[in-house]
Amino acid sequence: MNLDVIFLVLLALVVLFAILLLAKTVRIIPQARAGIVERFGKYKETLPAGLNILVPFIDRVRYLIDLREQVVSFPPQPVITEDNLVVSIDTVIYFQVTDPVAATYEIANYIQAVEQLTMTTLRNIVGGMDLEQTLTSREDINSGLRGVLDEATGKWGIRVNRVEIKGIDPPPSIKDAMEKQMRADRDKRALILSAEGQRQSAILTAEGNKQSQILNAEGERESQILRAQAEREAQILRAQGEGQAIQTVFQAIHDGQPDQSLLAYQYLQMMPKIAEGDANKVWVIPSEITKALEGLGSSMHEITGIPKHSGGPRVRVDMGPTEAQLPKPSGDPELTSAQKAVEAAIAEAAAAANPGKRVPAPAEPPTDPASAEPTGDQPGA
C-alpha cells in the first residue's frame, strides 16, 4: 500500500516536471511582438512571432517588445515665449520601435525619454517665437519637434513618425486681450467696408446725377431749339398769311374801285365799334362820317376826295361757293331722294334766315358731272 502511494506521488512529480519542462522549452510569441531572449543574463537572440523552442532553465524571454506604432499623449506643459508670456502646450507623439534590442538595452524607459525630450525641444522652439507666431506656426513647431526627436531617438531603436500639438492655451488675461483685439480689428474692417460702400454709393449717385443733368440740359436745349424753330416758322407763316391777306384785300379794293356809297357804308359800320367799351363816355364823330351820311341820304352832294362814281369795269372776286358742297348723287334712287331732301332743308334754312330774299329752288342734279364744275369768275352788274 505504501509502495503504491509512493509510485503515484513519483508519477505525479514526473508529469509535473514534464509539463514545466515543456513550458520552459516552447514559447509562443504573438504577432507584431518581439521576444528578447537572455541566456544566463546575457542577450542571446530575438524571437519572432510564432512558435519558438528554448533551452529550458537556461534561456529566458526577458522582454516582450511591441512593434506596432504607438501613440503617447503628454500632459500640458508650461512654455515661455520670446515676449515673456507663459502658454500651456500639450503634444501627441506617434512612434514605432524598429530595433527591439536597442529599445531594450540602449535606454531604460524609452517612453519617458521621448516625453522629456519632447518637452525640452518644445521649450527651445517656442522660446524663439512670440505669442502670435506660436499660435499661427503649429506646422513649423511640429516639423522642428519631429526632426529633433527622430535624430535623438534613432540610436534607441525608435522612429518618430509624427508629432502633433493638441492645444496651445495662453493665460486668461491674454485670451481676453486677444478677443478684444480681434473684435476691434473686425469692427475696424466693418467700418472700412461700410465707408468704402458709402463712398462708392456717393460716387455712383454723383455720376448718375451728372449724367441726368447732362441729359436734361441736352433735352432742354433741343426742346428750346425746336420751340424756337417752330415759333420762327409760325411767325413766318403768320407774316406770309397776313401779307397774302393784305395783298388780297388791297387787290380786291383796287379791282373793285370803291365809290362814295361804299365808303359811306363803311363809315356807318365803324360807328358801333367806336362806341364799344365801358370807358368810352365821350366820343367824337369825325366830320367825314357826317359828310358820308349826307352823301348816303342824298346823291346831290359830294364828299371831298371821294368820287361819286368810280370809273372802269368792276370785277367781282370769286370767294368760292357759298352753299355747302354735297356729294353728287349717284344712280341709286334712294341716294338721289336723300340728296334732294338735304338741299330742300338747306333752302328752307336760308329762306328763314333771309325772309326778304328769294332763295332759288334746288336744281336737278346734272347728268354730266363735268357740267357741274364752276366755270370761273362771273362778271358783276
Low-confidence parts lasting 5 or more residues at pLDDT below 50? Answer: 319-327, 365-381
Second rung of CATH, namely the architecture of the largest domain: 2-Layer Sandwich
Write down the secondary-structure element order: HEEEEEEEEHHHHEHHHH
**Helix/strand/pairing class, anyone?**
alpha+beta
Major sheet, described briefly? 4 strands, antiparallel
Number of domains: 4
Within CATH, the superfamily of the largest domain carries the name Band 7 domain
Report how far apart the termini are.
197 Å
Quickly count the helices. 9
Strand % is 15-25%
CATH class of the largest domain: Alpha Beta
Number of E-state strands: 9
Shape: rod-shaped
- Mean pLDDT level: 77
Question: Which key features would you list for this structure?
Answer:
381 residues, alpha+beta, Tetrahydropterin Synthase, Chain A, 4 domains, 3-stranded antiparallel beta sheet, 9 helices, 9 strands, 16% strand, rod-shaped, disordered C terminus, transmembrane, Stomatin_HflK_fam, membrane
Explain the overall architecture.
By secondary structure, the protein is α+β, with helices and mostly antiparallel strands. The chain folds into four domains: 65 residues, no CATH class; 101 residues, Tetrahydropterin Synthase, Chain A (2-Layer Sandwich); 85 residues; 47 residues, no CATH class. Helix content is 53%, strand content 16%. A hairpin with a 2-residue loop joins strand 2 and strand 3. Helix 3 packs across helix 5 and helix 7 packs across helix 8. The N and C termini lie far apart (197 Å).
